[in-house]
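PROTEIN DESIGN WORKSHEET
SECTION A - STRUCTURE
LENGTH: 140
TOKENS:
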């Protein structure tokens, strides 16, 4: 069952460059127990308006409703309880799904954090309705 979807930008495969990721970037991946061999950063080439990104990737939030979840839901739980149960049932959060794509070299940690919109970057007040990732930034 897909709970949510966000779009993030895909690294341009032509000009992305391996780089030594800063500590905080590595730290994010470690927190999610994802080992990354090579981090990539956007560079920007003639194609795709020099952003270093080309096209979009989708991140999904996935939840399997198993018997355990059903029992919990039946108790009319608080959101916190529900989230914890979901985690135990193997829920895949938007962020985790996105970070798996960082591991594959498809996008960047910065992009995932920005698109998945929790922590790190300053929280946005109007989260929800709009699924667009911001477009303007080119510096990093
Ligand atoms: Zn490029």
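SECTION B - SEQUENCE
RESIDUE ASSIGNMENT:
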């Amino acid at each position: 069952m897909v709970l949510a979807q966000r779009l993030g930008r895909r690294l341009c495969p032509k000009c992305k460059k391996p780089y030594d990721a800063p500590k905080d970037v590595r730290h994010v991946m470690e927190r999610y127990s994802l080992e990354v061999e090579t981090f990539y950063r956007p560079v920007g080439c003639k194609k795709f308006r020099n952003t270093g990104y080309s096209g979009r990737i989708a991140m999904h939030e996935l939840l399997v409703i198993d018997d355990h979840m059903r029992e919990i839901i039946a108790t009319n739980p608080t959101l916190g309880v529900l989230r914890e149960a979901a985690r135990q049932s193997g829920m895949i959060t938007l962020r985790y799904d996105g970070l798996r794509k960082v591991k594959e070299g498809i996008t960047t940690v910065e992009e995932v954090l920005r698109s998945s919109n929790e922590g790190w970057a300053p929280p946005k007040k109007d989260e929800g309705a709009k699924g667009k990732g911001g477009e303007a930034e080119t510096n990093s």
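SECTION C - NOTES
The helical segments are 23-31, 67-74, 79-88, 94-103, 109-116.
The longest strand covers residues 2-11.
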